[in-house]
Amino acid sequence: MTDRPSARPSPARSAVVLGGSLAGLLTACALACFTRVTVVERDVLPAGPQPRRGLPQARHAHMLWSGGVLAMEELLPGIGVELAAVGARRTPVTTDVVALSAQGWFRRWPESHHVVLASRDLLDATVRARVLSDGRIGLLDGTEALGLTGTDLAVTGVRVREPGGRERVLEADLVVDATGRGSSAPRWLTSLGLPEAERREVDSGLVYASRLYLAPEGARDGFPVVNVQPAPRHGRHGSGGGPGRSGWLLPIENGRWIVTLSGTRGGEPTAGNADFVPFARDGLRHPLLGELLEHAEPLTDVTLTRSTVNRRHHYERMPVWPDGLTVVGDALAAFNPVYGHGMSVAAQSAVRLRDTVRRYGWGSPGLSRRVQRAVARPVGAAWDLAIGQDVFYPGATEHGPTLRDRLVSAYVARLMHTATGNGRMARRVTDVTSLEHEPPVLLTPGTLLAAAIGPLKPPLPGPPLTPEERKAAGL
């Protein structure tokens, strides 16, 4: 992007955030340090942890990695305690995770990181109540954003349609697009006369299906996360061995399990209730998930989603960028949800936004350009993690994996193999998957040496559930 003087006069001291989901709420919280903020949301938001039409992915498993937890605590001190008070679970990784990786079963090493587990409805409702209790933040729900006002030099506001159909313009010093995968930002930018942004998509063809269960009585408190990952990819184009199938079981509030099953092209789950347990038992590399579900009580029908493409807009690379606009969250980069990084990236991006405004000052020349570059930083690590496997599935990209993709994948596979029998390397890997550290920490001399040596302990013959856990789950 070129450096141009700001086309704006004095700061208007107002901001509009489009989108009232987690990314939008956390961004509003970050901006409230500097200005009054109006959150515009198309849905009418519920008062509590209830479903809403504009967030269909809420019916699937969600986890908030420790990198996201730390960022959220920066913005909303004490939010972890509030989430725990309403039933969210704080689960140590890898202590309370039973996971079959492509390279074998992981051991349950002493805690290195943790995740927060809860239904998406509960997470959103808790954060929403906290954010909207701030008198500097207002909400216009049931209101649709129609387009930006301004020029290619500066966005000055947003045109909205309110309940009842009345249209008006909300003027703002900064407009933030946090409207998710369906963002209109590409079209809005070209309508202002700006060039199209560089975009990359990696589509593994993954379909995922989820269902809510009541855990067996003895397993309703303290049961571990269970994860069965796909087989390793191989072959001429880096793919092979059939479709990639995986499954997650996450213990959430009120003694329930949310279970998500997924499969790539040729191995997709269905929306049929009767197919869910057989897929978990017979379709994955190990029957553990299916065996657990045979002793649990289904509480909902199966929810199926096909919108899983990895899509990244490189707005930070635009040759010019208008003052007064920032794009965040899934509107900037949407990840295959099976990796669970979207919420954590949104929280880290909100912190970057706040810190950038604090450094350069509200209304400073070129602030929006700097903010757009800053919020793209957390996206990079999660993007590499997401496409690192997805790019190897047939049809994911036009030309298949690059040489770099192959080299990185081979090294990561070696690291994961090492982590199955080396606690120090397991911690180093989770440093990155938790988004607490960026991937270069995996390239230190000590890590390279450990990867060359390999695991220090022999492979586990089966899932590392304790006898007590097996009994509690009815196995």
Could you characterize what this model shows?
With 475 residues, the chain is of the alpha+beta class. The protein folds into 2 domains: 14-62 and 119-201 and 309-380, FAD/NAD(P)-binding domain; 88-117 and 206-305 and 402-475, no CATH class. It has 13 helices and 22 strands. It has helices at 22-31, 66-75, 79-85, 120-132, 185-191, 273-283, 288-293, 342-360, 367-390, 403-419, 423-433, 445-453, 467-473; strands at residues 14-18, 36-41, 63-64, 89-93, 97-101, 104-105, 113-117, 137-141, 144-150, 155-161, 167-171, 174-177, 199-202, 207-214, 225-228, 245-252, 256-263, 297-298, 303-305, 310-313, 325-327, 333-334. Strands 5, 6, 14, 15, 16, 17, 18 and 19 form an 8-stranded mixed β-sheet that branches. Strands 8-2-1-12-21 form a 5-stranded parallel β-sheet. It has a 3-stranded antiparallel β-sheet with strand order 3-7-4. α1 links the parallel β1 (14-18) and β2 (36-41). α1 packs parallel to α4. The longest helix has 24 residues, at 367-390. The chain is globular and about 65 Å long.
What are the key terms here?
475 residues; alpha+beta; FAD/NAD(P)-binding domain; 2 domains; 8-stranded mixed sheet; 5-stranded parallel sheet; 13 helices; 22 strands; 22% strand; globular; disordered N terminus
